[in-house]
Write a structure and sequence with these properties.
single chain, 124 residues, alpha+beta, seven-stranded antiparallel β-sheet, 7 strands, 30% helix, globular
Length: 124
């Protein structure tokens, strides 16, 4: 493998990173942040005409937040009876906090990212 190929492979590994969702501790999500909202059964039913039937969770970037809701640029949704994500194209949906059972923030998992980089780098 050429030096250029090894460098490109290492850069890809380092830039990809590993992410995880952690419980949000702030009362409102931060605009620009990536979040997953696990919906209540009632919340799923209230949002059905926008999200489709039986949606369990939605993931995306928060555009704005108020005391009662947040505006989400949709990235994906997952139905209760089908674990495969449905990919969205950034459509904006207002999610009331009363429809959310749990809010999780996406963050870099440093430990897994370092391990992946070391394993990938060791293969070079």
């Amino acid at each position: 493998m050429s030096k250029v190929s090894r460098t490109a492979l290492l850069a890809t590994i380092l830039l990809s990173g590993c992410y995880r969702f952690v419980p949000e501790t702030e009362p409102r999500p931060e605009p620009g942040g990536e979040y997953r909202a696990v919906l209540t059964t009632e919340g799923s039913q209230r949002l059905e005409r926008y999200l489709g039937q039986g949606v369990a969770s939605v993931t995306g970037r928060v555009v704005a937040a108020s005391d009662t809701s947040f505006l989400l640029a949709m990235g994906s949704s997952v139905k209760r009876d089908d674990p495969r994500p449905v990919v969205w194209s950034g459509e904006r949906i207002t999610i009331p906090f009363s429809a959310v059972a749990r809010l999780e923030r996406r963050e870099l998992d440093r430990g897994r990212t370092v391990r992946a980089a070391l394993i990938g780098g060791g293969g070079l």
